[in-house]
Design a protein that fits this description.
heterodimer, A: alpha/beta, Rossmann fold, Arc Repressor Mutant, subunit A, five-stranded parallel β-sheet, two-stranded antiparallel sheet, 7 strands, 15% strand, B: alpha+beta, Beta-Lactamase, six-stranded antiparallel β-sheet, five-stranded mixed β-sheet, 12 helices
């Protein structure tokens, strides 16, 4: 049986995933951790075949950061990222750091176990795209990458000048992107745009990340 | 040929008056002509007014001699017998030349920069300008500066150095409790570039510059700039409030997201309970479900629901201890972990990174984590009892990320490899975290 390490901070979600894994008959749950901070240490000291890990874990630790580190030092361990957040950058970052599979927590037990099974035989399972969210009058797929970068910093409460500096843009370009998103969504101001983007889960900033 | 005698009395008086005017004009024009370089006017002008003056004297003497029947001097007789047209021609020539000189002088002043044009130019400026000696004596000051001084102090500008001192100190009538001179208006800024709002609502900024041995005091109307700046500051304040509310919202949004996630799980658990009920019924009705299978479904549902009832997030240090125990490492803690969330988070990241390195590189059995605090900073020092580094420690991805996170908030990360590996993170207390 494959040895699975579970990293999930919500107790109920963790319990549910533990049940899925343990009742499958194919996997042995070696441990479950609340924070991705300790995932690599655990994998280094114990035999682990795969890690089933959330993105947002306890102590603001990013599962994607931990995945990158594990993949670098222990490349034989499979990593399956599961999340409930439709955040636009998670899939791209997961692919970039070499995560084996990525899926959503809203899936049934069968779906999650199916993803795990396919991953263990070498397949890489990713959703076709980030779930499309309706933000005002627009779909999240209508935003360009640059607009999403600007939106991320708007949600973080940064001023236009700070956004321009961080993204190496002119102030005018920042304002143009914000106006473009407002026009697409029909929102009256940037605050409304930021609040809706955060509420829908399109942008999640609260992660301790190395980026 | 007509002479002076042949003119009527009125004509004689008018002629002599014209001579008098020409003489006076000539005398008055001397200061205008003599500073110039041209020698011809300097020669002709005095000759002209001497001639007209001489004629005036001769004809006056002639009239007096005639009226008083006195004997006429020869020169007077000779001059009086000259044809009158010669005298008129001379007078016209003298007048004409003087008018020519006056017109030329006027044209010259209009087309050439003179000391007068400099003053005229300064007075036409919309800014205030004053040049003065360090003692305060004014060399040149324009109307605008004079007006400003009058509005601010209530009197003419007489001592520029004192005026500048008053401006710098910002002693206005509104705030000054000392007797003596103080300024009308509201002081918006003191110091080297003082600014005042005058009673008429305009805002003026002053500046002083030393130009060798002369001081230059300038005043500029910055009313519009001040209004725009004030409006901008207010809007920036508003924006900062919005941004803070966004940040606060972001914090709350996490809780909302977790609540949504929890709700989805509960929906699943609801489904699991339904399955358990169905399985139980089928078990009771001997429809192919064993008791163990039914019980298993109940166990699963109850286990998940139990987690909700006892949902206690693990304390960070407990998580570290558990992780250390799970990796076979003994954790020795000393001191108290700081309460401040961001500092605690970074210290735990350092501990986690050190735990990983202790296992993979040092093959250690014990990890020591010492928390310390002084009035200025929090500190954590982490070391182990494993193998000593063979050389300088190369910072991999984990240590680099830790360093970046620590330095982002003004902290310091220090790694020593001699005589043993010690990782120390120091983070300053308070708003300015520079250590």
């Amino acid at each position: 049986m494959y040895k699975i390490l579970l990293v999930e901070d919500d107790p109920m979600a963790r319990q549910l995933l533990e049940i899925y894994v343990q009742s499958s008959g194919r996997y042995d749950l070696v441990d479950s951790l609340e924070s991705a901070l300790f995932a690599e240490a655990y994998c280094t000291a114990n035999k682990v075949d795969a890690v089933l890990m959330d993105v947002c874990t306890a102590m603001n630790a990013s599962g994607l950061d931990a995945a990158e580190s594990i993949k670098k030092h222990l490349p034989h361990i499979k990593i399956v990222i599961i999340t409930s957040q439709p955040e636009c950058s998670f899939i791209d970052r997961a692919k970039a750091v070499g995560v084996d599979s990525f899926w959503y927590k809203s899936a049934t037990a069968e779906e999650i176990l199916n993803v795990l099974d396919r991953t263990m035989v070498g397949e890489s399972v990713f959703p076709e795209s980030t779930p499309v969210l309706h933000i005002g009058n627009a779909d999240s797929s209508e935003f360009t990458d640059r607009e999403l970068e600007v939106l991320r910093l708007v949600v973080a409460g940064e001023t236009d000048a700070a956004i321009a500096e961080k993204l190496y843009m002119s102030l005018r370009t920042v304002k143009h992107h914000i106006q473009s998103m407002k026009d697409k969504t029909g929102f009256r101001n940037r605050t409304e745009l930021a609040v809706r983007a955060r509420a829908k889960g399109l942008i999640i900033n609260k992660l301790q990340s190395s980026e | 040929m007509a002479t002076f005698y042949d003119l009527s009395e009125t004509a004689q008086i008018l002629f002599m008056a014209a001579q008098f005017i020409a003489t006076c004009m000539g005398i008055c024009m001397v200061p205008m002509v003599y500073p110039k370089r041209r020698w011809l006017p300097k020669l002709i002008l005095p000759i002209g007014f001497l001639i007209s003056g001489g004629m005036l004297a001769i004809f006056s003497a002639n009239i007096r001699v005639q009226k008083q029947n006195l004997p006429m001097p020869a020169v007077t007789k000779w001059a009086s017998e000259l044809p009158i047209w010669i005298s008129i021609l001379l007078l016209v020539a003298i007048f004409g030349y003087m008018v020519f000189l006056l017109v030329r002088e006027r044209l010259y002043r209009k087309s050439t920069i003179t000391r007068f044009s400099i003053k005229e130019g300064l007075d036409s400026l919309s800014s205030g300008l004053c040049f003065y000696e360090p003692s305060g004596r004014i060399i040149l000051s324009n109307n605008c500066m004079q007006e400003l001084c009058h509005k601010l102090v209530g009197r003419d500008l007489q001592n520029a150095a004192l005026f500048w001192q008053l401006l710098q100190q910002g002693e206005t009538n509104h705030v000054s409790k000392k007797p003596g001179v103080s300024l009308n208006g509201v002081c918006l800024r003191q110091g080297d570039t003082p600014a005042y709002r005058l009673p008429d609502g305009t805002v003026w900024s002053f500046a002083m510059e030393q130009l060798g041995s002369i001081c230059q005091l300038t005043a500029a109307d910055t009313t519009q700039i001040h209004e725009l700046t004030t409006r901008l500051e207010q809007e920036n304040q508003q924006l900062e409030q919005f941004n803070q509310r966004l940040r606060d919202y972001g914090e709350k949004a996490d809780a909302l997201t977790r609540a949504k996630e929890r709700l989805e799980i509960k929906v699943k658990v609801h489904g699991m309970l339904g399955q358990a009920l169905l399985a139980t019924r089928r078990c009771l009705q001997d429809e192919g479900i064993s008791t163990d299978e039914a019980m298993s479904l109940w166990h699963h549902s109850v286990a998940v629901l139990h987690k909700e009832a006892v949902q206690e997030t693990e304390k960070p240090l407990e998580a570290l201890k558990k992780a250390a125990a799970a990796t076979g490492i003994t954790l020795e803690l000393k001191g108290e972990i700081p309460e401040e969330a961001k500092v605690r988070q970074l210290f735990l990241q350092a501990a986690a990174e050190s735990l990983t390195n202790a296992i993979s590189h040092a093959k250690a059995k014990t990890l020591y984590v010492d928390f310390a605090e002084d009035p200025y900073a929090y500190r954590v020092s982490i070391y182990n009892d494993g193998l000593l580094p063979t050389g300088p420690v190369r910072e991999g991805g984990g240590l680099s990320a830790l360093r970046k996170n620590v330095e982002r908030i003004g902290g310091q990360l220090e790694i020593k490899s001699v005589p043993q590996f010690i990782l120390t993170v120091t983070i300053g207390k308070g708003g300015d975290r520079d250590v």
